[in-house]
Amino acid sequence: MEMIVIWCASGLGLSSMLGSACGLVFRRIPHKWNDIFLGFCAGMMLTASLACLIMPGMEATSGWGVWQVVAGVGGGVLLVGVLDYFTPHLHNITGIDPEQHHGPTAINKVLLFVMAIAIHKLPEGMATGIALDETNPGNSMAITLAIALQNIPEGMVVVTPLIVIGVKFLRVLGVAAAVALLEIVGVFAGYFLGNISEVLLPTLLGLAGGAMLYVISDEMIPETHSHGFQKEATYALIAGVVIMLIIQKFA
After folding, report:
1. By the 8 A CB rule, do 239 and 231 touch?
2. Which helix (H) or strand (E) segment is 102 a member of?
3. How many CB atoms lie within 10 A of CB 57?
4. What is the structure's pLDDT at 236?
5. pLDDT tens digits for 232-248?
6. In whole angstroms, what is the distance from residue 131 CA to residue 209 CA?
7. CA 215/CA 212 separation, integer angstroms
């Protein structure tokens, strides 16, 4: 199991770095394709949060014990909601036009935005780590795949605004590595928490599922519907749901 944890943590970190590398090479991608891909990832994560986290948590309880999962979901939503209160939303700052004049305010917004993504990496990593303690390894693999795919456009979003405001290449690379490392730490932290007690596992699964649901609804879906390509993004989300259900079936 320890090797699976290492592989999953490494996969998430590498996918984040891959996205950052794409951002350094391509700088900008058309909103249409970004929204389609992000919508697809949202669909996969939506299915993973329900089928691989919340429902297994329900199955691990009996009778009125489902309150543990419900409380966990509420706690996950509250956790990410509090983080969002102090950091900007992903759909509010998706990059800065290169032709703009960048004053201190614009720079501060970009830095705050990067910090917001970094903070969100922790609960994402923990969701994967908590799932790794579950008895069905296919669920943890499905969650890892969904988050790894989502890391690619997110990694691009991290580096692009930093390049635009003139941050040096090596520093941008360092920030990208730090963001990826935070998610890796989250995986190990989630796995450690999941191993503390089987009694806590249903609540922790609900916590991870609630955190993912919040990010999908409050960050990913609004982002895919803010550039005029909401129909394409919706179709991509449905495709992501179906693909993840197939993966979960055979994993």
Report:
1. no
2. none
3. 27
4. 94
5. 999 999 999 999 888 87
6. 10
7. 5
Query: Higher-confidence residue: 136 or 70?
Result: 70
- For 4-24, give one letter per residue: b (16+ CB within 10 A) or e: ebeebbebbbebbbbbbbbbb
Where does residue 185 rank: exposed (0-12), middle (13-18), buried (19+ CB within 10 A)? middle
Cα(36)–Cα(235) distance, integer angstroms? 8
Tell me whether residue 215 is exposed, middle or buried, using C-beta atoms within 10 angstroms of its C-beta: 0 to 12, 13 to 18, 19 or more: buried
Mean pLDDT, the chain, rounded, equals 79
Taking the C-alpha atoms of residue 148 and residue 154, their distance in angstroms, rounded to an integer, is 10
Between 132 and 171, name the one with better pLDDT: 171
CB of 41 closer than 8 Å to CB of 182: no
Given CA atoms 58, 63, 68, 71 in this order, what sign does their dihedral have?
Answer: positive
Q: What's the predicted TM-score (pTM) here?
A: 0.72
Domain extents in the chain: 2-250
Q: Which two tokens stand for residue 125?
A: 């990593």
Q: Residue 221 in contact with residue 21, Cβ under 8 Å?
A: no
Helix, strand counts (H, E) of the chain: 10, 0
Distance between CA atoms of residues 231 and 14, nearest Å: 31
DSSP-derived letter for residue 200 is T
